[in-house]
Write a structure and sequence with these properties.
Chain lengths: 166, 100
């Protein structure tokens, strides 16, 4: 087993362990901390995939900005541990079986896929970021500018929602 | 070299964990975090296929997904704060104003 493979399994285990811990914890702050573990592990997985810009963005935006927002909200609302209630009948009889069926079907289709199993040559890491930004500011210029409007609307919406007394 | 299918399996398991979190948890903040988990699972797929096909388009899409996730988290948490002001609760069960 190469070092790369071992690293992949360690990161995957960290991500999945964090994810399971996220939905198992009753206190929101514990869930938020597990989510940070997931984000950092995923940044490592992106590095393994040669997406170093995305790994940096994952750390800065997700583990940095979004998680700070979550933790702030949890502290601000003084959210305590959630008392366990029985989940609804619809979730028990429809939701969970369908979640299991979805997993099985997707896993089955992944195992069936005829594509070559090994990842392709990929893009050389040193040039990838430059090419990425070139693509972003040429072919994807319009969607990129649209996201700035999206962010602006989101900022305004968040400020208005949190400020006014409805 | 790690097979692409390994990444897809990790993504699948993260996605399912997120779906189960959305379905079973009552605290809306944790539900929102489970949604972030689902978006991250999608991102792994996009980046894995970007590598598989030796094309950078997948990574561009992943960047857009991250942007959307940030906007969604900001608005979602704003809604939660506004709701908490009115009802003093974070439980999804109590959010039944529109229930018939």
């Amino acid at each position: 087993m190469s070092a790369e493979t071992i690293l992949f399994f360690v990161l995957a285990a960290a991500a999945l362990g964090g994810a399971v811990n996220l939905i198992a914890q009753t206190h929101p702050i514990h869930s938020a901390l597990s989510l940070i573990v997931v984000m950092v592990a995923l940044a490592g997985i992106y590095l393994l995939l040669g997406a170093e810009l995305l790994a940096a963005v994952q750390i800065i935006v997700y583990a940095g900005a979004i998680m700070v927002l979550f933790v702030f909200t949890i502290m601000l609302l003084n959210a305590g541990a959630e008392e366990r209630t029985a989940i609804s009948r619809a979730a028990t009889w429809l939701g969970l079986p369908f979640a299991v069926i979805l997993t099985v079907v997707l896993g089955w289709s992944i195992s069936l896929s005829q594509a070559p199993t090994y990842a392709g040559p990929g893009v050389a890491m040193a040039r990838a970021s430059g090419q990425l930004s070139q693509l972003l500011f040429t072919s994807y210029m319009f969607p990129f500018e649209l996201t700035s409007i999206l962010i602006l609307v989101a900022i305004l919406g968040a400020v208005v929602l949190a400020k006014r007394d409805f | 070299m790690i097979p692409t299918s390994h990444y897809l399996v990790v993504s699948l398991l993260l996605f399912t964990t997120g779906v189960i979190g959305v379905l079973t948890r009552r605290n809306v903040i944790i539900v929102l975090m489970s949604i972030e988990l689902i978006l991250n699972a999608v991102n792994i797929n996009l980046v894995a296929f970007s590598q598989h096909l030796a094309s950078l388009d997948g990574q561009i899409f992943a960047i857009f997904v991250i942007t959307d996730a940030a906007a969604e988290a900001a608005v979602g948490l704003g809604i939660i704060i506004a709701f908490f002001r009115n009802r003093q609760t974070l439980l999804a069960d109590e959010m039944d104003l529109l229930r018939w």
